Amino acid sequence: MRKEIHPEYVECKVSCACGNTFMTRSNKSELRVDICSNCHPFFTGSEKIVDAAGRVEKFKKKYAMQ
């Protein structure tokens, strides 16, 4: 590898809009994000399925899911 062409890899403090903070490593010393694993609907279980045409019920009926 060529020397002095790669960015420096440092400790990084990540701050989410929900107030959660954690440390990781990056080429920046601080990151601000809108959503993290503590507030993302997929990870928290509060994910809602928006179905306007009854597609979810049709799929469940077709494959006999309750």
Automatic annotation (TrEMBL):
It holds the Pfam family Ribosomal_L31. Signal peptide: none annotated. Gene3D superfamilies: Ribosomal protein L31. Keywords: Metal-binding, Ribonucleoprotein, Ribosomal protein, RNA-binding, rRNA-binding, Zinc. This is Large ribosomal subunit protein bL31. Its cofactor is Zn(2+). One of its GO terms (biological process) is translation. It comes from the Bacteria. Binds the 23S rRNA. Zn(2+) binds at C16, C18, C36, C39. Binds 1 zinc ion per subunit. Part of the 50S ribosomal subunit. GO terms for cellular component: ribonucleoprotein complex; ribosome. Belongs to the bacterial ribosomal protein bL31 family. Type A subfamily.
